[in-house]
Amino acid sequence: MQTQNPFLDEMAKLTNAAMGLAQSAGEEARAAFRAQADRMAAELDLIRREDFDALKAEVAALRAEVAELKAAQAPAKAPAKPAAKKSPKAGA
User: Structure pTM?
Assistant: First the structure.
């Protein structure tokens, strides 16, 4: 519906511009907040989730390898059983 009232046209334009400005301000605030959060994470010496997961998988693989090596080394470390001594025969 078209209006012939210039006041309403101006109000519609101002409202439209204000909404665009509010959206831009929201995006800028979001970007600033993210930058501040990244800065704080760097200061606290935190890592990203992807790095943590990769390191966790690597540690699990190394633990499995260590367990395999210990299992392979266990039979080699086991002392050899001494041969059973034969008892001397009575009357010989």
Answer: 0.42
The H or E element that residue 72 is part of is: helix 49-77
The amino acid at residue 70 is K
Looking at residue 92, what DSSP letter applies? -
How confident is the model over 48-76, as a mean pLDDT?
Answer: 93
- Residues comprising the chain, all counted: 92
Burial of residue 79 (number of CB atoms within 10 Å: 0-12, 13-18, 19+) = exposed
Judged against a pLDDT cut of 70, whether residue 57 lies above it is answered with: yes
Return d(Cα 46, Cα 53) in angstroms, integer. Answer: 13
Cβ atoms 7, 1 nearer than 8 A: no
Residue pair 3/9 in contact (Cβ under 8 Å)? The answer is yes
